[in-house]
Structure formats: C-alpha cells, structure tokens
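Readers of this paper often ask what the protein records in our data store actually look like. Such a record has a labelled line for the sequence and another for the backbone structure tokens. The tokens are whole numbers drawn from a learned vocabulary of local backbone shapes. We quote a single record here, exactly as it is kept in our systems:
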Amino acid sequence: MGNLLNIIKSNAAETLEITTGFWHHLHSNPELSFKEQQTSNFVAKVLKDNNIEVFEGLNGNGLIGIIKGAKSGKTIGIRAELDALPITENTNLGYTSKNKGSMHACGHDIHMASLLGAAILISRIKDELSGKILLIFESGEELLPGGATQIIDSEIFKLNRPDAIFAFHVLPELAAGKAGFCEGQYMASGDEIHITVKGKGGHAALPHTTVNPILIASKLLLDLKDFIDTKSPSHIPSILSFGKVTANGATNIIPDDVQIEGTFRTMDEEWRRNAHKLIEKISNDTCQSLGGDCIVDIRKGYPSIFNNPEICNRAKKLTQEYLGHSNVIDLDRRMTTDDFAYFSQIIPSVFFRLGVGFENGGNHQLHSSTFIVNQDILKYSSGLLTWISYNMSKP
C-alpha cells in the first residue's frame, strides 16, 4: 500500500503545474448552465490527449471518460460539474473571468481541474488498477432540472453503471489540505415555492372597496412560518424561507395581486410530499379566509443527498491515509442542495468536502463575486481522488 500511495503522491506533485494550468484556463473561461460547449470541448480534449476513451454530447454538453484497469474489479464513478454562475467576478486575479456576467464562484473549476488531474494519474497506474473508472462531467448543476439525470439516462452510463460513485465540493470554511465527511443524510432536498396572492386592487384611500393582497400575503407568510415551526417532525430538519415578495402597487395604489417566492428544504421524501400538500392547503385557507384567493406553484427540485454509511466510512479512512488523520473531520448536515442527490438515490454514493480556505482567514463565501480558493487544494485533490478510486475499484 505504502509504495503505491507514495507513487501517486509523487505523480501528483509532478503534474501539479499541469493541473493548475487546467484550473486557470477553466476559471478564466466560465460558461453558464447548459451552455458549456467550450468547457466540454476542453475537457474532452484533455482526456483524449491522455488516451482516455470519451463519450460526448450526453443530452447536451455532458461527457464521460472511461479508464479500464488491467485487472477485473468494480466500476467507480467520480463526478464534476461543467457550469459557472451568473455573477460578475470581482477578484482581480491574474486568471479572472474573461466572460462578464459569468464566474466560477462555486468551485466547479476546481472540481473539473482536480478530476482531469486524477484522470492523468489514474492512467499512469492502469496496470495496477482493477475494474473501471468513470470520469463524469455533467452539465447544468446550478440550474433546475440539473444535468445529473441526463447522465443517468444516457446509454453509456447505463452500460457502465457504477458500483459506487463519488463527488467532492470545495468548502471555504475548511483550510486547504483538510477534508470532511458526513455519513447518512447529508444535504437537503430543495423545492421552489411560488405563490400568487390574488385580491382586488383599488385606491389606497378607499381600502373598504378593496381586498388588499399585501395584507393577505403578510398574514400568509406568518401562517407558513407557524406551520414550519409547529408541524415539522422534530427529527427531520426542515426550512421554509421566502426571499422575494413583489407587490406592484404604489403609495396610493393597492395592487390586484402579490407574488411570493421562496424555498422549502428537508431531508425526508415522505415528509417532503406531505409538506407540499400542507403549504398549498394553508395558502388557500388563509387567502380565502380574508376574501382573496391564490395560485400555488411548487417546483420540485433536487432530492436530498444520502451518503452510504459503509462506503463513506471506507472513503474517510482512505482520505485519512492520504491526508493524515488530523486533517479529516466529521461534518454536520447542511440544508444546501446539489443534484448529485439523483446519483445518491440509486447508487451507493459519497459526497464529501475538501477545504479551500486560508489559514489566516479572509475567506469568501461560495456564490459571491469575491470568492477565491486557496490553490493549495490542487496539491491534494487529484491524488486523493486517484487513491480513493484505486482502492474502491478492487473486487
């Protein structure tokens, strides 16, 4: 074990400059969800240049590379995402985004560069490798309906269905060189809630002639908060948050309707279905009790992510071997979402975190225009993915 581990670490150090070059190129050339044609082309070229079989155009820009080991074994999948966010970058980095209004502010560029680096490292140890490694690059993770289902529905994925699948996500709160794992339910499902509250508009000086949808919407927001506070099962994390209320009236105009937009997140599918029904019922009852009406549109998003306990524990131990025990921590559950959840619903999966934070602080949050990663992560990420893949593919 020690000899191959040292070989992987040595190869990772040797190819660090190449992997960093991949990252700089990807960061400088971000493309938005489902529009990642040039990004997909770049990834495909790197894989082909390293004699890796590539299957492109998987219901869009998604692609899969396959590395076959010399020995029989399991099929292991590793996923990265192609898309960037609709954010104008404000970092002044030497490799800042060239595409105004598009930025890799969620670390997908690091994910891709790490997986490309791992592809090179895995190719170098093919003679020692068991089974097959699927290098999965999916389109549109940041935008519903996401690209994971397109990968899952592709013929090449079905023919090479993984026995286990992995993905990591950068975490700015964790220093570079550290990793975090959480067994079982890790991340939430995420649904969009759109409610149109309908009243009767009119002159603000004659409120008795109107049915004010703003007042109805205000009451509805409180009723929905009370619902989530009192009806949610105590053992199931749940969040119902509203971030947008639009009432196109004026100081002297009561509008006809108000739009409310928010998100519902939880970690149990049965409760998720029941909560949708309750949100609709409470909305209708509240609005009608005050003389109005409503239209409730619940747009179902990604399911929750479940980390297979056995596979997660093995991956955690392998990460401890690669990074050192003190650099691997246990994570709390999160109410954020990721469409990797679709994989985790059907295949034993592990979604873990790698730190990109700086020891001296000054870290910026994901999805911000000033998001900067500590590039030291690339000293570890490709080698770690290689080490996990090599060991997990053994029969």
Notes: The chain has a mean pLDDT of 96. DSSP finds eleven helices and 16 strands in the chain. Residues 269-289 form the longest helix (21 residues).
